Amino acid sequence: MPPRLQSILPALYLLGVLTLLLCPSGLCAHSLSSFCITIQDCRMPPRIAHGSHHDISSFLSFTTVMHYECDEGYVLVGHPQITCRSSQWSSPAPQCKALCLKPKVENGNLSADKDLFIESENVTIQCDSGYGVVNSQNITCSENRTWYPEVPKCEWEVHNGCEQVVEGSKLMQCLPNPADVKMALEVYKLSLEIKRLKQE
Ligand SMILES: *[C@@H]1O[C@H](CO)[C@@H](O)[C@H](O)[C@H]1NC(C)=O
Ligand SMILES: *[C@@H]1O[C@H](CO)[C@@H](O)[C@H](O)[C@H]1NC(C)=O
Ligand SMILES: *[C@@H]1O[C@H](CO)[C@@H](O)[C@H](O)[C@H]1NC(C)=O
Ligand SMILES: *[C@@H]1O[C@H](CO)[C@@H](O)[C@H](O)[C@H]1NC(C)=O
What we know:
- About 30% of the residues lie in helices and about 30% in strands.
- By secondary structure, the chain is α+β, with helices and mostly antiparallel strands.
- The chain has 3 domains: about 5-95, Complement Module, domain 1 (Ribbon); about 100-155, Complement Module, domain 1 (Ribbon); about 165-190, no CATH class.
- A 4-stranded antiparallel β-sheet has the order 1-2-4-5, with helices on one face. A 4-stranded antiparallel β-sheet has the order 7-9-11-12, with no helix packed on it.
- A hairpin with a 2-residue loop joins strand 4 and strand 5.
- The protein is rod-shaped, with a radius of gyration of 34 Å.
- The N and C termini lie far apart (about 105 Å).
- The model is unreliable at about 10-35 (pLDDT under 50).
- Bound molecules: 2-acetamido-2-deoxy-beta-D-glucopyranose (4 copies).
- One 2-acetamido-2-deoxy-beta-D-glucopyranose binds next to loops.
- This is Sushi domain-containing protein.
- InterPro entries: C4bp_oligo, SEZ6_CSMD_C4BPB_Regulators, Sushi/SCR/CCP_sf, Sushi_SCR_CCP_dom.
């Protein structure tokens, strides 16, 4: 026998006794059917996305208690249990919200520094100085546990002023790594040498 039926049988039995005691003429047929309908209400616990529920009502209990769990990668928001009272659930079912891993962005940082983000949370990517964001700067943790739109990249930006590198002033802004800076400095020194030689 299914467990639900087991816990409902005593109720029906009690109802039968009450019906006999209170309604000898059988006038209670209508209230009996509405009682059955109200039992049905709580036998249909709300379904939730990315999670499941199971009945944890105690044996022979008149109240139905449902326990909700989330699929892996989802976190439960709200109360994990709902109880049927007066043919109504005590509260709305909880929700299972997606968790997104911290987006990996090289040469940039995030507006919030943490390892996990929850569905619908937004993150703004800030690229390091000299790097420009490719794709959307703002991303949202979506229901399918991925970032939407896709995680942007921070790419080295070639500024318009880069020809001036030999003049020294925009050196740091234009070159991505110390080796390049060193080389640029060499070029700069060389250009000064050439200038000096020309003047002589
Ligand atoms: C994230 O951004 C969207 C639109 O840009 C907005 O509707 C939503 O409320 C934001 N989420 C949070 C948690 O602030
Ligand atoms: C991200 O980097 C910027 C400058 O590069 C800095 O001002 C900001 O504090 C950093 N944010 C975080 C969350 O580390
Ligand atoms: C990204 O979000 C921040 C903070 O919500 C906002 O100030 C900025 O304008 C957004 N950037 C873009 C490109 O939508
Ligand atoms: C995840 O959801 C977004 C919308 O929120 C959708 O554009 C994207 O294609 C989905 N990704 C996958 C892998 O299903």
